Records
---
Amino acid sequence: MTSPLPFRGGVGGGEVAHEMARIDPRLGSFATTMRNAPTPFESRLWRALSGSKLSGLKFRRQSVIDSVIVDFFCPALGLAIEVDGRTHDSDRDARRDEALMEKGIQVLRFSNEQIAGRLDAVLRVIADEAVRRPQRWPGRPSPGPSPEGEGGI
């Protein structure tokens, strides 16, 4: 089955022991600034993800992982979500995704246009990927099924 939306990124093996250990203070400060001034597209996606609204998944905003800040991160699954505007550099993004993949973190990327015009489909892709991801901490409940509805965009 193909996903209803294209996304870039890869699936990596292994686990991240403590991705939040010893955050560079400059990155932490920058992440806080970004949390306080999200783009309209990040805000829209956050409203759908916050409070474990999507399949009971807990996401963080502007999460620092080593030397990378990801827009949204579900630590229980090692699932990062990136919202890409027109200024994103695809080569740089590919290098960042590869570094995260080596730590066992799956990156899903969505464009501003996808968030604006097809949010339900974006949420389906995220929920479907969450079901496929192994729990990083056994013994915790796994995510529920993806939201109702299938179909194209």
---
Amino acid sequence: MRLSRLITTGIVMFCLATGGALAEADKAAKQAEIHKATQAALEKFYKAKPALKGEVAKAPGYAVFTTYGLSFVIGGAGGKGMVHDAKTKKDTFMEMAQASAGLQAGIAENETLIVFKNTKALEQFVEKGWEYTGGGAASAGVAGKSAGAGSAESVPGGTSYYTLTKNGLQAGGALAGTKFWKDKELN
């Protein structure tokens, strides 16, 4: 009886230890995937608008997100990305969600670049993450190639916001609320 308890306890401890190691490997793989997507997105932004490379290089930090969304009068989108602090070289992995309402229709995969113009804006974004937007646009993308150079808008709080449509089609105008927050699993 004691031997079976000892064996059972040993098996449970082994499973917990290997489960933790597997979770760490999965976490590292997900982080690497986001790093790779971030670098690919940055290259697309630089190709579409070469001046962005200098803007990002001078900035205290930037964020890149890949989002997936669907809209028809009301809409929603979600995605993942990361914020890079140029001073500390620290990456913070984040998630985002967006809800919108207006004269809009489409389905798309977008890449978003947020360039922080000061450290305070970067820190507030990572800690608070809220952003409210509204506007109109038409965009299209197929097989990872975007039509046009992407949209840009200056958002209060010392940031510039750029979007490229990777795949899909969107058109219209809407009021939108967007929430960005730290990814508890990847940080």
---
Amino acid sequence: MADKLIFAQTFEGLLRALGPRLDARMADELRKAGIDPAAELKPAYPLSVFQQMIRLVGEAVAPDQPADAQTFAAGRAFMDGYAQTMVGRAMLGMMRVIGPRRSLERLSRQFRTGNNFSETTLRELGDGEYELWVNQVSLPGFYRGIITAGLERAGAKDVTVDLATHADTAATFRIRWK
């Protein structure tokens, strides 16, 4: 397979998620990781740069939390930042219209707006309960955060997203809502 790439709009969402936390120190950390927040974003970046940026955003938005809680917070913050992008506004607006179930069914397509490699498989377990397999997950907390925030934006209440399995690069999540 070709290199795993994350597209610019995903990085734009993460940069916007930082908000006022994007100070001189954070800008230096981002440049060290391979992102220059003062320059125009490249069309795509390697997966490793994305992973480092998630960690930096997590440390900024949840500094006193353990690593998994930081990446979960980064995922939730990303959805807020992504909602401020052109692509994110359109996607999240569609999710509100079609609801949580259909949003989950379209997750592979939605993830593919942000990268060139994501694949998902969804299995319904019951009313408002699903199992989601994702082929490439290095930071499960981030995925838990984006899925939780996305489903809430799609109208789901009392959302829980638990990591069921994580082996090699793939992960399975158990998702429930009311």
---
Amino acid sequence: MNKVFGFIAREFREILPAMIYFMIAFHIVALSHALSLERYGIEAKTSVAATIMALIVAKAILVADALPIINRFPDRPLIWNVLWKTMIYGLVAFAFRYLEEWIPRIGDADGLGAANQALLAEVVWTHFWAVQILLLATIVGYACTSELERVLGPGTLHRYFFGGKRAAGS
């Protein structure tokens, strides 16, 4: 039983930074999305949806980080891995956003293809892409931060931002 709790605690500590980052980012995106849709009388997703999406994307990013292909350019300047991770994480975010719009339409449509056709016809694409751009901007920030953490060493950024034992070189 202690091994199970230890595993859960370790997983939670691993996911916590990404979860907090994306929870803040997704709530900002949800708020700006709600504000832009309010004018048209369209009700936006709740903060619960933003929180659930943050949890899912944070876990998906941690799974992607475990793949050997994620650090494809470890010996090149940081921008290489930042752009690579941004592309991968951006594709994950796009897939999640598309599924978020598609899944609710499945119950109302006659099959998966009809649900996709309904999505293509009903979604306000300017809003979809505006939100996607905001997400991509937050993903760039996350990729930059995670690459700095990788290069500087685990815990270094945390010590610089929140204190504790001084980081090496300070």
